[in-house]
Write a structure and sequence with these properties.
about 270 residues, 13 helices, Four Helix Bundle (Hemerythrin (Met), subunit A), Helix Hairpins
Length: about 270
């Protein structure tokens, strides 16, 4: 039973079937927003949800059987724990006033697409790993917003109290400017009282928007490289085919680097 479960869960076709069911579940959730579709095929959609849930339960059972009796191997994986939690929530008998909760749980099942597709898992891992670095960037952004908001209050509050009359209003105005939505109107309104107001807005747009966006992109790219390295190391430890390929590629690169060093040393000899 253990070997059979491993073969099934390790088969690419099984993985594709689960992904197809998750996508189909998402389509059903979208169809339920149409009153006409629910009226005509509500019962059929409900049965389809039950069948999809049964397939997800079977998937969990097979994955548990594949690692039995070492259950920690299953629950030690955060993605497996995520899938297990969603399946358990789907099995809870929500009814009456809690029927809306059941619909939300069905919607959560669409998120299983993240755990089912390795590339999406990598993206999520990248965003999670980037949070500490983003925290420092956000602190810098908050400091920049605060400085410009206080400066804007003192410069423009008398002429435009609706936008700059309070610190909160100034912060909201700067947020509008940072989104580049209608910021020119705000600038021209300020320039009616101060011809040099454009320096304030241009500098904020350059520093607060373009520079900060590049900082966020840099943090995410750095985190992406770290996530790829971590995933490659995990694949190698697990003995996965992709991990073996990555290891062979690294070995080839090392050999090429050594060959270049040897050639350079040979060229330097008299």
């Amino acid at each position: 039973m253990n070997l059979l479960a491993r073969r099934i869960t390790g088969d690419r076709r099984f993985e594709r079937l689960i992904i197809a069911l998750i996508v189909f579940n998402g389509v059903l959730v979208g169809l339920e927003t149409s009153a006409t579709v629910v009226e005509r095929a509500g019962t059929l959609i409900e049965w389809a949800h039950h069948l999809i849930l049964a397939a997800f339960v079977a998937e969990v059972v097979l994955k548990l059987a594949a690692v039995a009796p070492a259950w920690r191997r299953y629950f030690g994986d955060s993605w497996n724990l995520f899938d297990f939690t969603i399946v358990v929530l789907s099995l809870l008998p929500f009814s009456g006033e809690l029927s809306m909760v059941a619909r939300m749980v069905r919607l959560l099942r669409v998120l299983r697409l993240v755990s089912a597709v390795p590339k999406l898992r990598l993206v999520v891992a990248t965003l999670v790993n980037a949070l500490p670095g983003m925290g420092h960037v956000l602190m810098l952004v908050a400091l920049l917003f605060y400085i410009y908001a206080v400066a804007g209050f003192h410069l423009f509050s008398d002429a435009d109290p609706e936008r700059w009359g309070t610190l909160g209003a100034a912060l909201l105005t700067l947020f509008q400017v940072a989104t580049l939505e209608g910021w020119a109107e705000v600038m021209y309104a300020a320039m009616e009282t101060s011809p040099w107001a454009w320096l304030f807005f241009i500098s904020f747009v350059i520093v607060g928007t373009f520079v900060m966006i590049n900082l966020f992109v840099a943090v995410v790219i750095n985190s992406l490289e770290e996530s790829k390295a971590t995933q490659a190391a995990d694949d190698i430890r697990a003995g996965a085919p992709d991990g073996d390929a990555a290891l062979l590629q690294e070995l080839r690169a090392a050999r090429e680097a050594l060959a270049r060093v040897e050639a350079a040393l040979s060229a330097r000899k008299p």
